[in-house]
């Protein structure tokens, strides 16, 4: 029996399907195995189909991407041969992108994660193969089992008090705040020089939560689902505001989202 879930991530509708007949619409451990993203413009409709695979521990191990294009009334299915692998070695995970097609060459975008015994990220390393000084190392802090801050560092960046551009230690801090239901409500992202907030700041808000369980929690090692995976339920409004050093608003974006639910208020998966 074909199972269908409708999820939504930052303004894009995700239709998730599974062929596992043991799934239940109230089962928080349900595995999302397929997501379709519909993009429509004046010329054509594009459907991106993402397939997910898990190991016996229900850990995500692969995401595969294909594309379906409708143009001039006909559909053309294109296998992009693009996929992401997640390789586990004890508490370490390597996430990499691959393409088997010469038409879609891409960088591996290698990320290295370290997890704690609660399966939470503690360290994320993002090497830059072109400019070593831009390689990042991110440290994740928790309180009461919730992520509270991510500190982004540049361990290979030079430090020289003589050169103004390198005369301070550059870091970024993003702090996370939650409502009484355990849902992410806001993050505050700051550039820091020698641990002092400077320059632009970005405020992200997550609002209008439903009462359904969150089916994307197992996708937390994929960057596009990270913020959504942190909550118990599912946000339906997302805003992002960026301010300059004088606290003037310089950028604003907003997305209002929609979902399909069953009679009990849970995201539909069957």
Can you describe what's shown?
There is one protein chain. This protein has a 16-stranded antiparallel sheet, with no helix packed on it. It has one helix at 226-229, and strands at 3-9, 12-18, 34-40, 45-54, 60-71, 74-89, 92-99, 111-115, 121-126, 136-143, 146-153, 170-178, 184-193, 196-207, 237-243, 249-256. With 270 residues, it is an all-beta fold. It has a single domain, classed as Beta Barrel (Porin). It comes from Flavobacterium palustre. This is YD repeat-containing protein.
Task: Write a brief caption for the model.
With 270 residues, this protein is mainly β. It is built from one helix and 16 strands.
Let me know the average pLDDT. Answer: 83
Biggest sheet, strands in spatial order?
Answer: 1-2-3-4-5-6-7-8-9-10-11-12-13-14-15-16
Q: Specify the structural class.
A: mainly beta
> Count of helical segments?
1
Estimate the global geometry from the Cα principal axes. Answer: globular
CATH C-level name: Mainly Beta
Total DSSP E strands = 16
Output the radius of gyration. Answer: 20 Å
User: Which second-level CATH architecture applies?
Assistant: Beta Barrel
How would you spell out the order of helices and strands? EEEEEEEEEEEEEEHEE
Distance between the termini: 9 Å
Largest sheet: 16 strands, antiparallel
Helix content: under 10%
Low-confidence stretches: 1-26
User: Could you say what the CATH topology is called?
Assistant: Porin
Query: How large a portion of the residues is in β-strands, by DSSP E?
Result: over 45%
> How many structural domains in the coordinates?
1
């Amino acid at each position: 029996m074909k199972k269908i879930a409708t999820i939504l991530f930052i303004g894009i509708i995700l239709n998730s399907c599974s062929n596992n007949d043991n799934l239940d619409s109230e089962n928080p451990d349900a595995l999302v195995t397929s997501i379709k993203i519909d993009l429509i413009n004046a010329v054509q409709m594009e459907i991106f189909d993402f397939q997910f695979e898990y190991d016996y521990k229900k850990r995500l191990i692969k995401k595969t991407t294909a594309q379906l294009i409708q143009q001039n009334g006909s559909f053309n299915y294109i296998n992009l041969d693009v996929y992401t692998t997640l390789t586990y070695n004890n508490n370490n995970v390597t996430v990499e992108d691959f393409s088997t097609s010469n038409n879609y060459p891409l960088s591996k975008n290698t990320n290295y994660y370290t997890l704690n015994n609660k399966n939470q990220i503690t360290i994320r390393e993002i090497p830059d193969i072109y400019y070593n000084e831009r390689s990042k190392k991110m440290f994740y802090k928790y309180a009461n089992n919730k992520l509270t801050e991510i500190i982004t560092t540049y361990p290979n960046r030079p430090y020289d008090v003589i050169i103004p551009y390198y005369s301070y230690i550059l870091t970024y801090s993003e702090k996370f705040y939650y409502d009484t239901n355990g849902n992410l409500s806001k993050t505050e992202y700051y550039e820091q020089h020698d641990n002092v907030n400077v320059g632009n700041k970005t405020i992200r808000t997550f609002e209008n939560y439903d009462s359904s369980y969150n089916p994307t929690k197992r996708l937390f090692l994929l960057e596009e689902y990270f913020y959504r995976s942190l909550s118990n339920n599912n946000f339906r409004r997302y805003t992002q505001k960026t301010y300059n050093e004088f606290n003037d608003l310089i950028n604003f974006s907003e997305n209002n989202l929609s979902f399909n639910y069953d009679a009990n208020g849970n995201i539909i998966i069957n």
